[in-house]
Amino acid sequence: MSVLLLSLIPNLSQLLPQWISQFGNLIYIGLFGLIFIETGVVILPFLPGDSLLFLCGSLAALNNQGLNIWLLIGLLSIAAIAGDALNFEIGEHFGNYLMQSQKLSRLIKPNYIKRSQRFFKKHGKPAIFLGRFVPIIRTFIPFTAGISKMRYRDFALYNVLGGLSWVLVALGSGYFFGNIAVVKAHFELIMLAIIAISLLPAAIMGLCNRRGEPIE
């Protein structure tokens, strides 16, 4: 399944305009669902969230593509926030069972859980915000927060800030830079660059922690 989902990334620039033409405004429902599932369903961390948001932003900048940037920001922010909230609840109520299940261990890979736990332990509460910008970790960090019985009020604050920031940055980058000729010609490479850049917040946080300046 992961191979199939990852194969969507290089074809998104061709597929999404076709879907918009075919389904019209129903595309908003599909986009909402994809972002919600990527952030809310712990067994599907491979959906191309960063790439999808960037491409949506670039298409919204084109008048003939029929995507409204403000509607995208509103709907997809809600999807991202609601997805993480669901993921937190799954982790809080069913996390230990899911991790101990031999059948589900194939879908919830232990090494991803360990990476997420280390990330959460290292950064504390801000991990909820920072995790938004790290592929794979983005899906597992709210699940891990739920397992750790983090106070929901604290989680909700970082969840809202992180969801809004992630959607705004990814959509905004696509809106303002996605239609530059060199970007359009090297879409796959740009996606890799976005992933690399998305790791910077975690790297900065890690540097602060090493210097003994943890951010609470």
TrEMBL record:
It is a multi-pass membrane protein. The chain crosses the membrane at residues 25-47, 67-88, 127-148, 155-177, 189-208. It is found in: Cell membrane. InterPro entries: DedA-like, VTT_dom. GO terms for cellular component: plasma membrane. Keywords: Cell membrane, Membrane, Transmembrane, Transmembrane helix. Residues 47-175 form the VTT domain. Belongs to the DedA family. This is DedA protein (DSG-1 protein). It comes from Lacticaseibacillus camelliae DSM 22697 = JCM 13995. The lineage of its organism: Bacteria, Bacillati, Bacillota, Bacilli, Lactobacillales.
